[in-house]
Amino acid sequence: MIRILFFAKIKSDLSKDYFDLDIDTPVNVSDLRNSLMSEFSEDKSLFQSEYSLCAVNQAIVNDETVINASDEVAFFPPVTGG
Amino acid sequence: MTENNSNISESSMNKTFIQVQTSDFDVGAEQQEFSDPSIGAVVAFTGLVREFSEHPEVQALTLEHYPGMTEKSLFAITEQARQRWPLQQIRIIHRIGRLAVGEQIVYVGVSSAHREAAFEGCRFIMDYLKTDAPFWKQEHTRTGDVWVDAREKDQQARQAWQTDAPDTQDKR
């Protein structure tokens, strides 16, 4: 199981701060995206690579990055601060 | 709303100060913090909430962030800037929460012995903050709340630094 934190539009569209995804680890970000897209099929576009960024242990990573059970994982839209 | 302060000191002269806060900040007071006699130049950028051209009916926005990662990513950006230029003190303040048009939203102050490094370092930090620091703006309109889309122009500004070879940076 991996706890996935959500921010901004992903959080508000799903009305969830986080989701505990039942998936075996290690797993890469690309597979995690696919799992989230089937879990939230009505909002699957939120988890497409063009729309969302994934951070592992508070650093933005690419889709090939491998996630382990103890990692802190978050999905969020491209950032708009400043 | 989370308030998160971090004072990350390397030495008193080359100090990095990063603060994420709901409250406003005083640019004059920030300027006073650059007091080391070896400082020859301070370049400071202040970002304001401007009127919204895409949604003129917007009167306010709310800034959300990712506590922990925000401070970590801002610090990583300042370290990248320090690798490129001989910077002294760096001070970053970013506000979160609800902000009205005209309010101050972000401050980046950079000091160095000479102006070139301070100008370039300040701009580099702002360009990277725009694409790498986990902040999100939501606009409040009479018909509902709208998340602001990321801008391609901001990505291009960041990428321009990556294609800029270090040995040509002085000629920019």
Task: Please name the defining characteristics of this protein.
heterodimer, A: 82 residues, alpha+beta, Ubiquitin-like (UB roll), five-stranded mixed β-sheet, two-stranded antiparallel sheet, B: 172 residues, Aldehyde Oxidoreductase, domain 3, four-stranded antiparallel β-sheet, 4 helices, globular, disordered C terminus
Roughly what fraction of the amino acids of chain B lie in strands? 25-35%
What's the tally of helices of chain B? 4
Query: What is the total domain count of chain A?
Result: 1
The name of the CATH superfamily of chain B reads: Molybdopterin biosynthesis MoaE subunit
Q: Compute the gyration radius of chain A: what is it?
A: 12 Å
Individual helix count of chain A? 2
Structural class from helices and strands of chain B? alpha+beta
Q: What sort of overall outline of chain B do the alpha carbons produce when their principal axes are compared?
A: globular
Helix- and strand-based class of chain A? alpha+beta
Helical amount among residues of chain B, as a percent range?
25-40%
Low-pLDDT segments, ≥5 res of chain A: none
How big is the Rg of chain B? 17 Å
Largest pleated sheet of chain A: 5 strands, mixed
* Quaternary organisation of the protein chains: heterodimer
Say how many strands of chain B there are.
9
The strand count of chain A comes to: 7
| Percent in strands of chain A | 25-35%
Low-pLDDT windows of residues of chain B = 167-172
Describe this structure in words.
The complex is a heterodimer of chains A (82) and B (172). Chain A has 82 residues and is of the alpha+beta class. Chain A is 22% helix and 29% strand. In chain A, the strands form two sheets. Chain A has a five-stranded mixed β-sheet. A two-stranded antiparallel sheet of chain A has the order 3-6. Chain A starts with a strand and ends in a 6-residue tail after the last strand. The model of chain A has no long low-confidence stretch (mean pLDDT 97). With 172 residues, chain B is of the alpha+beta class. Chain B has one domain: Molybdopterin biosynthesis MoaE subunit (Aldehyde Oxidoreductase, domain 3), CATH 3.90.1170.40. Helices cover 30% and strands 34% of the residues of chain B. Chain B has four helices and nine strands. Chain B has helices at 27-32, 69-84, 115-132, 152-162; strands spanning 4-8, 16-21, 41-48, 60-65, 87-95, 97-100, 104-112, 135-141, 144-147. In chain B, a hairpin with a 2-residue loop joins strand 8 and strand 9 (144-147). In chain B, helix 2 runs antiparallel to helix 3 (115-132) and helix 3 (115-132) crosses helix 4. The radius of gyration of chain B is 17 Å and the shape is globular. At the A-B interface, helix 1 of A face strand 4, helix 2, helix 3 and strand 8 of B.
